[in-house]
Design brief:
With about 220 residues, this protein is mostly helical. The chain is about 50% helix and about 5% strand. The longest helix has 24 residues.
């Protein structure tokens, strides 16, 4: 689902965005098929008889495009992606991913979509929220539910590498890290990055293990 979305990108950032939007399209298309709605009939985008341009899929993408945008920003800030990870095709003046960089970026996307958010008294992953929202829409269309709110749940965005997090990492001892299941190499990586002014990523599993320290 992602390959066609790399077309027409004249710079690396837009190449990454297009690839990410292709990933999001796949998640939305899967959710729509899961509830049995017709993906070609939408509300915001024009209908089309072209197989890959299905307006309801694009409609469902809109509230979740920020997941891709955030993934791209974080990837370039943390050097997960860099200019050297792209190559320029001289025949059509477009940028493409190097294969290894694509794998790294896909990992960032999956982690972003697997991050949790509070919704209806539960903590759900964002890919599950997409399924929940299309199910809500289906219920609204057949009259089972009285309304449909596309802007809920709202994301709560905060940097994992803020000053409070950096200080918490630096005061974490090896013994405390061991008790939380954080290995020496991971702790070394965290400390090394926390001492710099550069942006860095803390993966969700590590953030969960650090959570007690962060809230002190």
């Amino acid at each position: 689902m992602t390959s066609s979305h790399q077309n027409n990108a004249t710079d690396p950032v837009n190449a990454a965005l297009n690839y990410g939007y292709g990933f999001l399209e796949g998640e939305c298309r899967r959710a729509i098929h899961g509830v049995g709605l017709e993906p070609a009939v939408g509300f915001l985008h024009d209908s089309s008889d072209y197989q890959t341009k299905q307006s309801l899929v694009y409609d469902l993408e809109e509230p979740f495009r920020w997941l891709v945008d955030l993934s791209v920003v974080q990837s370039f800030e943390s050097k997960t992606l860099d200019l050297d990870d792209f190559y320029f095709t001289g025949d059509n003046y477009q940028y493409r991913f190097e294969s290894e960089a694509k794998v790294h970026f896909l990992k960032v996307l999956r982690e972003q979509f697997n991050s949790g958010v509070k919704f209806k008294g539960r903590v759900l992953k964002w890919d599950t929220v997409i399924e929940e929202k299309i199910s809500e829409l289906a219920g609204y269309l057949v009259g089972r539910t009285p309304n449909f709110e596309a802007n809920e749940p709202a994301p709560v965005l905060e940097r994992a590498d803020n000053q409070a997090s950096r200080e918490a990492i630096l005061r974490l001892t090896q013994e405390e890290a061991r008790k939380r299941g954080i290995g020496k190499s991971t702790l070394h990586y965290l400390r090394m990055n926390a001492k710099t002014k550069e942006s860095f990523r803390i993966y969700s599993k590590v953030r969960a293990k650090l959570a007690q320290e962060f809230v002190r």
